[in-house]
Amino acid sequence: MLCLKGFQVAAFLTRQLVCASRAFGVAIVAQRRTIRARLNDPDSFRRTCKPLRLVAFALVATTASLVWGDLSQAGSVPAISGSFTMTSDEGDYIGQGKSYSFPARALTLGLIQDGISVGVLTNDRWGVSLVAPTAPDGTRQRLKKGVYKNAERFADALHPGLTVAGAGRGCNESTGRFTVLDAKYGPNGYVRSLHATFEQHCEGLEPALRGEVIVAAPPPPPRLKLELTLDPSSTSLSADGIRLEGTIACTQTVDYPSVTTELSEGFGGGAVGSASISLPKCGPKPRRWQMTVASSNGIPFTADSVRLTVRAGATDAFYTAYLGESIGNVTEELPTREVAVAGGSGPNAGSDSNSSRPTWSIVVVLSIIAGLGWSLVIALLLRGRGRRQV
Q: What residue spans of the chain are helical by DSSP H?
């Protein structure tokens, strides 16, 4: 009795395995025939498989979505030349045993997790991503010429990354290899061209999907640059704080650039403050900015000069999409400097910080001159009195 139950359990588990394999497009004909022969109940076999097929197909759809999500994260540009071809073995779930060829006009080339991705702009959304193994410290490495063996879906320190997906199909786990015959990069990590071959096995099975990509991208666009100026002559003190003015220009038109300032009075114990403004747009023509910086520590600004740092920031739309926000953000900072403040109540109020602070010097000189004048007058009076006495 126990032996019979054990056989039934084993047969049931084997039947489940075959159902799942069929759902992933893997035909295990020999095992299926053996199971059917043992069970001698095809209808039962089909009834058992039906619900599992639904679950398995749901898993496949989810996997394909996740795989394409990996590929669609890449910042990419339309290719200007190249080709993308694939050949699928019979029994390969991804390629379905077919051959594929895509022209340059349907291709894109870009980055994915510091690897390279090639996409196809069709309804089936085919794509391949190639990623180098991570460095020992976990950082990503750039792909270069060479053979990359023992590839898996996700790259790590021991394995390069390889993913080929499309038509709503993707591997939950993939193994294989690829060869980078050529890879050229431009400034800021921009991928200029790629020539590579690949071989992918889905779920560790023998049928393979093999292909070759030869893709070239257009020249990289120039990086956004900012030009920031400060007008020292416009720096003045008011009841609200210190007023600053300057200009900002951008090599390309961008939205909402920012200007940030940090002020400090003296080398400690004085007033400090900071402020930031956002402008609607920035372009090649310099745009004037102005702001008033109030004290942030409760001590009012009173001195005739302050130490000042000014920086500007803007987002490079292309490289933000291509490389990520941390790379696409561009900043420009002026060297920290001491700037004269007009209207300050300090000993040098309104003076030029680059001058030799003449205000007190003038007062001293005038005082000396006045003192000498009065001394001369007194001396003359005393001399005249002496003569009259004689």
A: 2-23, 29-39, 42-72, 317-323, 325-328, 358-389
pLDDT tens track for 209-236? 999 999 999 999 999 999 999 999 999 9
- Identify whether the C-beta of residue 123 lies closer than 8 Å to the C-beta of residue 110: no
Bridge-based pairing state of the strands 76-78 and 107-112: antiparallel
| pLDDT tens digit sequence for 118-160 | 999 988 999 999 999 998 888 888 999 999 999 999 999 999 9
Q: Which CATH class is domain 226-340?
A: mainly beta
pLDDT tens string 5-51: 333 434 444 444 434 444 334 333 334 343 333 334 444 434 444 44
Residue 286 near residue 231 (C-beta atoms within 8 A):
no
- pTM of this prediction? 0.62
- Count of CB atoms situated within 10 Å of the CB of 181: 14
Structure-model confidence comparison of residues 56 and 389, the more confident one: 389
Q: Cα-atom radius of gyration of the chain, to the nearest Å?
A: 38
Exposure string of 105-141, with b = 16+ CB inside 10 Å and e = fewer, is eebbbbbbbbbbbbbbeeeebbbbbbbbbbeeeeeee
Instruction: Give me the helices (H) in 249-357, please.
Output: 317-323, 325-328
In the chain, where the domains are located: 2-67, 73-216, 226-340
Write phi, then psi, for 283 (nearest 5 degrees).
Answer: -145, -170
Orientation angle between helical segments 42-72 and 29-39, nearest 10 degrees: 150
Backbone angles phi, psi at 53, to 5 degrees: -65, -40
